[in-house]
Amino acid sequence: MSPVSQSADVPIPPDLSRRYDRSVAGRAWLASLPALIGQRLEHWELDVDLKPGALPWSGRGAIVVPVRRRHADGIPDGGTPVAAALKVAFPHEDAVRERQALALWDGDGAVGLLAADAGSCALLLERLDAGRSLLDISPEAAAPVWGDLVRRLSLVPDSRPQWREFDHVAAMAERWSDELPQTWEELGRPFPRWLLEAALEVCQTRGVVGRRSGIDVLVHTDMHYGNVLARCGTENRSDPDADGPGRYAAIDPQPMIGEAEFAIAPLLWNRLHELDRQSPAKALLRRCRDFSAAALLDGEISRQWSLAREVDNALQYAARRQDAAVARSLWVASTLAGRTLEDLPAVHDLPVPA
Questions:
Q1: 151-198, pLDDT tens digit by residue?
Q2: Which one of 36, 133, 141, 256 is separated from 223 by 20 to 30 angstroms, measured CA to CA?
């Protein structure tokens, strides 16, 4: 089967179509996908590896097609083609930065990058097990796995050109110092001023300290449970180390440079329904401390960054009138600030992040 005919057989996941059908640029990208996929299949000598009736994987900004490489180093003549994954992203800054970060990590703690095409925002990646992630194990069991990966991913900047592509976490904090109060006013002050001021204090402190700390590393800023997938070939659940370090890899990094503690926040706004029902606020703070300790991070700095990130999230959701998501972010942010806001839904009634 030719690459063109193969690409025509790749269905576009409905969620991805709905998301990008809302704009002219999005519709143009959706229309271009069959040709983009066909070009990469041909250039990288790939065959689509979808089961009949199955959909490709997709995230918020990309389609990921399971493929097999016809020719790869180390495959003897007549050998089994190597499983891989073809990812084609909607063109945006994070897509450009992703390939730069994956090149630096070189498969140590993150999905392996096999090839990249900057023009189409296409990546050929190591095949991971999309059906197994840290969502499948308890947060307590996930902590050492996550912590090991963070330590592996926390590279110190060097002279390689990829480092020039990344924004600095401290610079974001400095921008938030100006932007958060303005947005809060424009949106009609959607939460008490004391919570805004708590976030601004973090921005002002970490913005200055972060610039001067001298401990900048590469940070995976979206390392929630679902963005840590099992490596293929680690399915043996009788193995006592089946969920141990080295069995998982991070995906979709949204990379930045700065303090590694910036990475904790997505763990705190996910899996809220699993917090202890009697003392959910204490359980959230304990989760922050436990994951920080597993990654050898400073728990207090993790708490501060997470508070600021959730206040920013709350304002973004408020601008889009996503009231349920606003409530979730305000519960997390105010709890991290030590004063859980009243008049919010119970934590176990809050919506699950998309």
A1: 999 999 999 999 999 999 999 999 999 999 999 999 999 999 999 999
A2: 36
**Best CA proximity match to 243, nearest among 134, 115, 111, 116:** 134
What does the pLDDT read at residue 79?
54
| Buried b / exposed e along 311-323 (16+ C-beta atoms within 10 A) | bbbbbebbeeebe
Burial class for 54, CB neighbours closer than 10 Å (0-12, 13-18, 19+): exposed
Q: How confident is the model at residue 240 (pLDDT cuts 50, 70, 90)?
A: very low
The CA distances from residue 299 to 124, 201, 217, 266, in Å, are 36, 17, 17, 15
Cα Rg of the chain (Å, integer): 21
First-last CA distance in the chain: 36
Confidence (pTM): 0.91
Q: What would the pLDDT profile of 15-36 be if each residue is shown by its tens digit?
A: 999 999 999 999 999 999 999 9
Q: What was the pLDDT predicted at 235?
A: 61
Told to judge if 222 belongs to the known catalytic residues of this protein, a careful annotator would answer yes
What residues have CB less than 8 Å from 194, skipping those under 6 apart? Answer: 337, 339
The tokens describing 48, both together, are 């689509």
- Contact call for residues 296 and 246 (beta carbons, < 8 A): no
Q: Which two tokens stand for residue 42?
A: 């041909």
